[in-house]
């Protein structure tokens, strides 16, 4: 049966010596305080193309024969694998065609094209793209570069595990996002293999999947890879409906646990990375941090969390940040009833100013079936100093007789 060994990962590491950047580990004081021990962030968001994907893509394409490269390569991706394949193909002198989901982030599309790949949009999901890419490979003779389920890809991604073992030899837990499983299975092969050879302590491997796109928990429960129906998630980069056969086998042997994380946890994790670690991370890339926020019981420090990618559309970033601020109690959306008379809105805004609230937006409505003739309603977007301040603001306004509805 096909598998991947730590020696395969070492060979991939040598191949990538002039290609991939050894990304830094940076300590997170806020996460370390919350977990009661050291937490370090492995910044693959600073990797070439903005994610870890260049590692596996380059190793896979470099392993092709000259004749295979002459026929070109084809891939399916929500964006990061697309960029990795496009750059690797351009470096190795072969044509790349990439199938991306309709609605993929515009910066990822532009970057993929910028690296020289042709981009095609066959449908709304990564699974649609996988089917279309495989059909293209069969019809045109191009080599299909799977985003996760190939030994060369797994070995390439596993070079992150070798770096972690060298940078933090006393690591007890490694947490990383999981889509199809190539990243974490490669890290597990490398880190556990290297630690065992060095006579070091056992390291726990923890995967984090978006709750709305979590195929591994039901697959592990069923004892085989199973397909699940995906729900919309901001973590598009790990929205994969079925684990790979190879990655599933590696998971059952080497990965200790897989947890799911909510959209709220992901947005708060992204906000934490930006504010406290000064790292721009996409939602999928922040899933490992979300796992620490939501499942701290599942890890033992020292912990290394992989920030797997930083390719986020600025428009999505603004939405996710508002989502994270709301989850942290620093952004309120409030409907407030007041008397429809001159000065009523000014009085309300003055009271908010006295409470130290920053009013970001106001919509004033006077005519609606739910309102009495003498009533008006305002929809306000408010910025506060945190959860306690938000509760104080809501309580003080209600004490003054305002009828509030929180959105």
Give a short summary of the structure.
By secondary structure, the protein is an alpha/beta fold.
Task: Please provide a written account of the structure.
This protein has 407 residues and is of the alpha/beta class. It has 16 helices and 14 strands. The strands form 3 sheets. Strands 1-2-10-7-8-9 form a 6-stranded mixed beta sheet, with helices on both faces. Helix 1 packs across helix 9, helix 3 crosses helix 8 and helix 12 packs across helix 14. The longest helix is centred in the middle third of the chain and has 17 residues. The chain is globular, with a radius of gyration of 24 Å. 48% of the residues are buried. The model has no long low-confidence stretch (mean pLDDT 93).
Could you name the key traits of this structure?
407 residues, single chain, 18% strand, 6-stranded mixed β-sheet, alpha/beta, 4-stranded parallel β-sheet
Q: Can you tell me the overall shape?
A: globular
Low-pLDDT segments: none
Estimated radius of gyration: 24 Å
Average residue-wise pLDDT:
93
Order of helices and strands: HEHEHHEHEHEHEHEHEHHEHHEHEHEEHE
Percent of residues in beta strands: 15-25%
Q: Which structural class should the secondary elements be placed in?
A: alpha/beta
- Number-wise, the strands total 14
Query: First CA to last CA: what distance?
Result: 53 Å
* Major sheet: arrangement of strands: 1-2-10-7-8-9
Helix content estimate: 40-55%
